[in-house]
């Protein structure tokens, strides 16, 4: 059974033999938009069996092998390029879902590099038609307050998209822009003349209450969740999210024994309870507390907490291997936390295009 820390020997395109990490779960990616800009690269590397990854903190290059990969979580603001590659995942018996960041900052110009909102909503629906409703998760992330964007404005933006995604998604995940904690974000906003306003506990609660009420009033019935937030707003029915989520993986891929073994999950058939003298003709099924129903007659039980202790304090993600690289996303969003500068991102994107199938995202 594969472990998250498994290392294997692989042969590089050059013929050199090296050691590589062989993750079961891949995150593609928190660090850049692989589906939007590097989908062809990623699927070519998946076919070749490995890619290279550079640690952003120490600059050391390591290798990621895909021989054990059973599930991929995609993150994107424009996952339309995935449409032509999804059949390959089916061929390889690799499961997936998409964290689709679908914001609406068109008027304010905060996301100049993304396609028009109408096209992104169309893409969302196309992906749902292929993958299924639960496998495309709507993110409005981050929620930004500025001198031109009020809480009223944000509520209206969410309403507009939410009405169009009704019956197309199960969940809305959001976060409150925490500018002061991210020097890169603060610098990028100030450099581009964006007069941001920090959220405080009162404004967070006001937004959460209004979002929760709107979810009910408009009949969306989305699960609402925050990403990486310390504040507890469960009184509004808003939970802390697990973006790389073993519960979703279990729901979608419970039949994949290799993945279930990795996640330490037992899949069992529902057993009727023995009738008592008062219930001679009615059996009630025995389903343990905490079970995840994956079919009408089947449930799953987790035997361990798979949380990734290497993530931020309030991140609920489970263990995965992220294969992206900072300073490579040419969406060029004004609030970007993954790019030190727009110039660096564009330069790396151009490097990628000189060697689009190289083992590194940037081609060298």
Please describe what this structure looks like.
With 364 residues, this protein is of the alpha/beta class. The chain is 29% helix and 23% strand. An 8-stranded parallel beta sheet has the order 13-12-10-8-7-6-3-19. A 3-stranded antiparallel beta sheet has the order 14-18-17. Strands 1-2 form a two-stranded antiparallel sheet. The longest helix has 17 residues.
Short descriptors:
single chain, 364 residues, alpha/beta, 2 domains, 8-stranded parallel sheet, 29% helix, globular
Brief synopsis:
The chain has 364 residues and is α/β, with parallel strands linked by helices. The protein has 10 helices and 19 strands. It folds into 2 domains: 7-264 and 304-354, no CATH class; 265-303, no CATH class.
Strand-helix topology:
Layout: E1 7-11, E2 17-21, E3 25-28, H1 34-37, H2 39-48, E4 50-54, E5 61-65, E6 71-76, H3 86-92, E7 95-101, H4 117-131, E8 136-143, E9 145-146, H5 151-165, E10 171-176, H6 183-191, E11 196-197, H7 201-217, E12 223-226, E13 238-240, H8 246-253, H9 257-263, E14 265-269, E15 271-272, E16 285-286, E17 292-295, E18 298-302, E19 321-322, H10 342-354
Parallel strand pairs: 3-6, 3-19, 6-7, 7-8, 8-10, 10-12, 12-13
Antiparallel strand pairs: 1-2, 4-5, 9-11, 14-18, 15-16, 17-18
Helix pairs in contact: 5-7
Q: Mean of residue pLDDT?
A: 93
Summarize the helix and strand pattern as letters.
EEEHHEEEHEHEEHEHEHEEHHEEEEEEH
Strand order of the largest sheet: 13-12-10-8-7-6-3-19
* Inertia-based shape: globular
- Rg to the nearest angstrom? 22 Å
Q: What oligomerization state is this entry in? A: single chain
Classification by helices and strands: alpha/beta
Number of domains: 2
Proportion in β-strands:
15-25%
Number of helices: 10
Largest sheet: 8 strands, parallel
Helicity range of the residues? 25-40%
Low-confidence stretches: none
- Please provide the count of β strands: 19
For the terminal residues, how far apart are their CA atoms?
34 Å
């Amino acid at each position: 059974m594969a472990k998250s820390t498994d290392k294997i020997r692989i042969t590089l395109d050059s013929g050199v033999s090296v050691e590589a990490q062989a993750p079961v779960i891949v995150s593609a990616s928190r660090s850049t938009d692989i589906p939007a800009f590097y989908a062809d690269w990623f699927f070519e590397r998946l076919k070749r069996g490995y890619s290279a990854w550079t640690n952003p903190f120490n600059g050391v290059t390591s290798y990621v092998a895909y021989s054990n990969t059973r599930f991929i979580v995609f993150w994107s603001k424009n996952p339309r390029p995935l449409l032509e590659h999804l059949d390959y995942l089916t061929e390889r018996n690799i499961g997936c879902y998409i964290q689709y960041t679908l914001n609406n900052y068109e008027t304010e110009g905060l996301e100049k590099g993304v396609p028009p909102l109408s096209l992104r909503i169309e893409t969302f629906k196309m992906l749902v038609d292929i993958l299924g409703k639960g496998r495309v998760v709507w993110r409005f992330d981050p929620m930004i307050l500025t001198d031109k964007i009020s809480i009223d404005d944000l509520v209206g933006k969410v309403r507009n998209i939410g009405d169009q995604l009704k019956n197309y998604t199960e969940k809305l995940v959001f976060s409150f822009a925490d500018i002061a904690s991210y020097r890169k974000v603060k610098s990028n906003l100030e450099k581009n003349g964006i007069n941001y306003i920090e959220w405080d506990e009162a404004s967070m609660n006001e937004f959460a209450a209004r979002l929760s009420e709107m979810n009910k009033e408009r009949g969306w019935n989305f699960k609402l969740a925050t990403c990486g937030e310390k504040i507890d707003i469960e009184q509004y029915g808003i939970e802390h999210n697990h973006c790389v989520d073993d519960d979703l993986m279990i729901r979608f891929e419970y039949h994949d024994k290799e993945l279930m073994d990795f996640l330490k999950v037992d899949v069992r058939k529902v057993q009727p309870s023995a009738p008592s003298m008062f219930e001679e003709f009615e059996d009630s099924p025995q389903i343990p507390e905490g079970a995840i129903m994956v079919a009408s007659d089947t449930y799953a039980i987790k035997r361990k907490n798979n949380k990734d202790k290497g993530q931020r304090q309030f991140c609920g993600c489970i263990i995965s291997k992220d294969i992206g690289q900072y300073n490579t996303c040419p969406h060029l969003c004004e609030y970007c936390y993954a790019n030190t500068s727009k110039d660096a991102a564009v330069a790396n994107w151009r490097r990628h295009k000189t060697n689009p199938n190289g083992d590194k995202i940037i081609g060298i």
